[in-house]
Amino acid sequence: MDTEAELTRRGHSAPGTGEGRPRSAFRGSVRSFARWGLRALPSWRGAAVLGVLCAAFLLLLSNFVVQPFLIPSKSMEPTLQVGDRVLVNKLAYRFGDQPQRGDVVVFDGTGSFVQEPPVGNPVAGLVRGAASALGIGEPSETDFVKRVVGVGGDDVVCCGADGRLKVNGVPVDERYLYPGDTASKVPFRIVVPLGTLWVMGDHRSQSRDSRDHLGEPGGGMVPVEKVIGRADWIGWPVSRWGATGPRGGGTAGGGHG
Length: 257
Known about the structure:
About 30% of the residues lie in helices and about 20% in strands. It is an alpha+beta fold and about 260 residues long.
């Protein structure tokens, strides 16, 4: 009888044991999921930290060495086209070198092309500035890209009977001009003050440049210290990879002087 009772108790206990297994497995699954989540969380944090570090590195690189710059207009065609992203060499003039005739430069036009900086939301300005520095957003409203035509001390004249621009009395070989454009439809003669630049776009009929600011404070001259860097390379699109081309702008029979 004792044996039968023992067997009976075991028989009754078996279903209870069986019913308990799924609950135990469920609790085990929850614990396993929690452990997986705890293990996975640091990897997400690591990815976020890595992303922040990469962004910080790119911002430092763009601030001090090379900055991508989105071309927003037709003013530098055919050399640079709308949507191109040029890589601006910020070390080009940092160690004593000066901008030369024919260089394509990016500069801050505050005080020359823009008399007063635009006023806006400071937070939006920071976001826009960061996007611009990474080359994924429109450039600042005060940043411009043009070609250096005259440097300090140059006598720049346009245009003579031959329709050509002259620097110090010598015609300039402007092979970079947009096809069909003239050197300038607006006649002018200026002497570039020391420490400043006279700049123009390659697509003269589509460019607002030094010519448009002759009657304003500064006379359209860009101070050398306002130059951000030299646009040496096209980084995007892939089909246009390469240097921005020979500097051009050399005077007939001479170099860039």
